[in-house]
Amino acid sequence: MSSLTVRVTPRAGRNEVSGYWGGTLLVKLKAPPVDGAANQALIAFLAERLSLPKVSVLILRGHSSRTKVVQIEGLERHDALGRLGFEGV
Questions:
Q1: pLDDT band per the 50, 70, 90 thresholds, residue 35
Q2: pTM flag (> 0.90)
Q3: Cα 31 from Cα 37, distance rounded (Å)
Q4: Burial label, 36 (beta-carbon count in 10 A; 0-12, 13-18, 19+)
Q5: Could you give the count of Cα atoms lying within 13 Å of 4 in the half-sphere of its Cβ?
Q6: Is 42 within the bounds of a domain?
Q7: Are 41 and 59 in contact (CB under 8 A)?
Q8: Phi, psi for residue 46 in degrees, rounded to 5
Q9: Would you say the C-alpha torsion 18, 43, 55, 22 has a positive or negative sign?
Q10: What pLDDT, on the 0 to 100 scale, is given for residue 87?
Q11: Domains identified in the chain, total number
Q12: Which residues is 17 bridged to in the sheet?
């Protein structure tokens, strides 16, 4: 189990990981920040990119903020970052 700090940019042109800066994963999502849509999109996007079921990705803090702390069950932090394209970070 590990946790990642994620900075979300909602209403983007497409869903993508846009970088890793200062210990924070930067993610762009098409979903708007309305009624939890961006949170659900973030969970689905990370689960798909990490090849994990959605129940393995949980937002711990930041439900109404762009900066969130996400818990990932089944992967260590460095493995999760490696699957997202940031090996050795």
A1: very high
A2: yes
A3: 6
A4: middle
A5: 28
A6: yes
A7: no
A8: -65, -40
A9: positive
A10: 79
A11: 1
A12: 27
